[in-house]
């Protein structure tokens, strides 16, 4: 009887399970894809370079798996079946224990008492009740296994429970919201398989996050979710331009008309059945108060979509805590948050519902193949000296904006003559200089939305071939024909910024051309260190960087 | 019934019975009870005296399994002489061969003597068994009221209420005592069940918190099975682990524990840990090491203890720091199999009990890992006791831990209360070391326990083959998908940082790590060819570029290795030393004007210079006159296993003892014939001690012959009160008061009614 628990077939499997809970998957192994399918539900893909992919089994990942209906036995079975060596016993025990913690507490709606927290284990509930942070959120005990929860605390309670390691399963359901007919207008196009799967998984799970690479059509996932909900929808986006892009896309791909979609931004305050608001306006404060919170209550929203959920600012998290009875869909290219608040995304927006490696989607032809090149520029002796003597806080700016970069940037632009080229940087002086060097327009923070739209439009139509842009163009700007990006400086070592910038050029090109992503860095300076940190995420997603010397370019 | 008992002539006393046994039988007795053989007894009479000593009897009882204990406990309930059929008839349900084995074992240990119609239980046993077969004391003894009548109580039993009956039945099954709730008083519970039972004396309160069921009631409830339910040997439900699976699990555990120990001790090497005043390692240091080795704190404690047992760590000469010993350097050079054998062997033998770390002592203080308080001399025996039943099973047999422990407990139930938790930690440690996996004894574990076969070869066969390559990836990680050859592993640890270890190792190549290898004397070309040779995947362009880029910048500052420098302001002297042929072996090289370097150690160079007639002075690092040579600190190793105390006697030793006793007997008997004294002062014969014990138990008066401190002999009529520590306390009828008599001065004993 007992033997059965251990006598999983002995294999030379593709998987190596490390005691630190990382899983190494040998990609070239014949069983690799079966193994990937088996472990994907409970392990986060951490890196997917060419030969060996690394997954990590984290508590969040295990709870995500539990939320998706997998049990510990399946997890252990997958590990044991595909593992080349013995799976550390402690790890298996830990997996079982961690998974058992999810769902020990459930949030449910009681017809008489409203929102309640129930546990099949009175000891857990007792522990929770004694917790100083949690007890104020709880009301009267109904019996030893059920306690009333203040309805307003649904989100904060889930956040707090996750922190103490007892994530609650939220079965309290959602309000339907005000019905509003939305249909996908699949005329001459259809949802891609992975888009359809994302929506199905999201809808089955209720709320949660869909992770897809930049350019993989996340907007359509949002649109399809709206069609599924058939209800009024609030869409939160990073900035106005991105918001307008959503609007254009929705008008083109759904039954929604211009009049049904409102923009709620610094410029306009329209509230319509589908309203697109920016993070910025939502977090604007006047006299210490958030002025625009009423938007959340302005309508009986049936669905809330968070675009670029990895950038969700802290105040929106706080607001989201109050919106737990509404369906929430998070969209992002990466769950990596530089501030480490992945746990809040899990408890407030919801578990991850869909994830696909970038390279897989590239292989399916949905995003353009890209070549990543780091160009190293030697500074002049003068520059090196002033860099060496600069104040620490000035050093990055000094090296990343070095004049020595200018000639090579020009050579790169010339090399790609005829392609649509974006030059992306972080420092205005540098951008202005480059704009003058190349004689092209610049888009930066102070450029008006009207001007931006105009320039983007010219670029899209191919009337301008080159644009110099600041970080306002990091997100959600759809420039389908952009094929070359040259990044000249950035926000220090931000990994997600790198991914976003690459995302600008990943839209599949009409002629299937390859995209080129250049990073110009100053040799022997902080620039190199930050660049290699920035590259971590994409390198781990399977993008191979090549390093070349500046004098080899052109 | 054993023929070995009945075949011998009828003996009238214990000493006599021992004397008529064969030499071989006596030799076996000495093997089973080695404590009575040291120092060798002068004759059989003194052997008998030792055999009935309470301490020795207690040791003998500790060896008995639950089945044999049930038999001897049953005999405790019966007066001597005991007819064997009386025992067997009341132990129905125990197989005949188990009963036979029991009586053989008991007579073989000298706890029971005589033949099957008249067996005698050594009196001392009766005093040592608290609740024979789980029965309480007789009513009269419990209440202190000789007139108490158990019969009426027994007759009242059928009238008990259901809850009362349930309680009585539970206590009747044994143990017969029950604990009252902490705050229980009879006033609290006047109409309650316990009060009612106490009032009717069906329960007797024996202390504030304890009640006991009188023996007569227990017997009445047990009815046809007066000695309780047969305690049969438990048979664990065996499973079967496939050999390949077992080997895989074993390899995983072995590689894991070796890696963990290496990581743990590397962390200790970098940053030594302070020694607590109590001798152990502090909580904070303990946590730091656990984190460094990516193990739980409990595992870290066990690994540290195992390292200490293997003498891989010790206390520095200053007495204030824990650090690796020189043994660690040796150990790290050994092949994996040998490393494991060192650890596992040390663990099996150590008299420390790692599982105690983190527990609290009786004063509530937490026991620190590595502290002397973790020493338990019984620890090696506990390990063997727990694991040896598995060594008798077929390879791959798995026994659930609980069932294994049940069997181990049955084998020797009298072991102390610490045993259960000690046994559990033995299992934990065995799993950690790869001695147990999936509840089965592993190949290496079996070889370790039985000592059969070549241990290291057995270990080597389960370990996966070593690999000689890595997979280098564009994100500058290098993955070794299996255990690496030690040499390659060391090189990689230099050129890259370990990111994750286990079955595979993940290395990260970075500017810093590549620079480190250049610092260590590798050239860019060395690095290129190293990666080209050992990478199974194409070397990524980024790595090639990085190596060249770093190498280009490397060496703006030059750092070399030299063990010794020589400096002087006198250039002529420097020139002279450089040219001196007697010093050519030291590879002196002019580094800069006035500075020579050598690869030899400073003390060697000093000595050579002096013997060549120069007058050098040694310098410290600061240029001061030298105070001592810098050396990597190493703790002296320390033995943790003191020689075991009661080692077994060899057959030859036992034979010698038996022969000496026989000679002694002859001499004593010769003396007896010439002197008419029944016994000699100074020799406490078994008979005297036993008579005293019996008189005490039966409450009988005795005539004793006594020699006082002045050498005056007398005959006294006494009523024994107690017998402890070699002294008899008894009421002396002549003095009409209680007196204390030294047992060794009692020369003879006779019942008072004779």
How would you describe what is shown here?
The complex is a heterodimer of chains A (554) and B (754). Chain A is α/β, with parallel strands linked by helices. In chain A, α12 links the parallel β16 and β17. In chain A, α6 packs across α13 (342-349). The termini of chain A are far apart. Chain B folds into six domains: 5-129, no CATH class; 134-222, no CATH class; 243-462; 471-509 and 522-553, no CATH class; 557-618; 678-751, Roll (SH3 type barrels). Chain B is α+β, with helices and mostly antiparallel strands and 754 residues long. In chain B, the strands form eight sheets. Chain B has a five-stranded antiparallel sheet, with helices on one face. A four-stranded antiparallel sheet of chain B has the order 13-14-16-15. A three-stranded antiparallel sheet of chain B has the order 3-5-4. Chains A and B meet through β2, α21 and β25 of A and β6, α15 and α28 of B.
User: How confident overall, as mean pLDDT of chain B?
Assistant: 83
Between the first and last Cα atoms of chain B, what is the distance in angstroms? 35 Å
Shape of chain B: elongated
Q: What fraction of the residues of chain B are assigned to beta strands by DSSP? A: 5-15%
- CA radius of gyration of chain B: 37 Å
Major beta sheet of chain A, specifics?
7 strands, parallel
Broad structural category of chain B:
alpha+beta
Taking the sheet with the most strands of chain B, its summary is: 5 strands, antiparallel
Question: Stretches of chain B where pLDDT falls below 50 for ≥5 residues?
Answer: 1-8, 627-631, 673-683
| Sheet with the most strands: spatial strand order of chain B | 23-22-21-20-24
User: Biggest interface and which pair forms it?
Assistant: A-B, 44 and 49 residues
Poorly predicted segments of chain A: 1-11
Summarize model confidence as the mean pLDDT of chain A. Answer: 84
Beta strands of chain A, count: 25
Helix content of chain B: 40-55%
**How many DSSP E strands of chain B?**
24
Strand order, main sheet of chain A: write it out. 12-13-11-16-17-10-18
Count up the helices of chain B.
Answer: 32
